[in-house]
Amino acid sequence: PLSGVSLSAQPPGGQVALGDRLVLSCAVAAGTGPLSFSWHRGGSGAPLGTGPRLELCHVGDNDSGHYQCRVSDGDSVAESVPLNVTVL
């Protein structure tokens, strides 16, 4: 089963200046088979992206919020702890 889904941000802590770049990375400690990733903000339905990285090139005011990475191996789904992104 999947376990240990963690989220990291660049810049660290998810505090990013307006217009700057934000990169979120999703890591999985344990999981087998082909993994599929999806990114969500504030529990919204449609994914913001698919893949282990989410890159926002020019961060705007409406990009702040809680981001989560969701990982599936086809059988089970695991989510990261939400990361709060603050646009300064």
UniProtKB/TrEMBL annotation:
<dbReference type="InterPro" id="IPR003599">
    <property type="entry name" value="Ig_sub"/>
</dbReference>
<dbReference type="Pfam" id="PF13927">
    <property type="entry name" value="Ig_3"/>
</dbReference>
<dbReference type="InterPro" id="IPR013783">
    <property type="entry name" value="Ig-like_fold"/>
</dbReference>
<protein>
    <submittedName>
        <fullName>FCRL2 protein</fullName>
    </submittedName>
</protein>
<dbReference type="InterPro" id="IPR036179">
    <property type="entry name" value="Ig-like_dom_sf"/>
</dbReference>
<feature type="domain" description="Ig-like">
    <location>
        <begin position="1"/>
        <end position="86"/>
    </location>
</feature>
<dbReference type="InterPro" id="IPR007110">
    <property type="entry name" value="Ig-like_dom"/>
</dbReference>
<dbReference type="InterPro" id="IPR003598">
    <property type="entry name" value="Ig_sub2"/>
</dbReference>
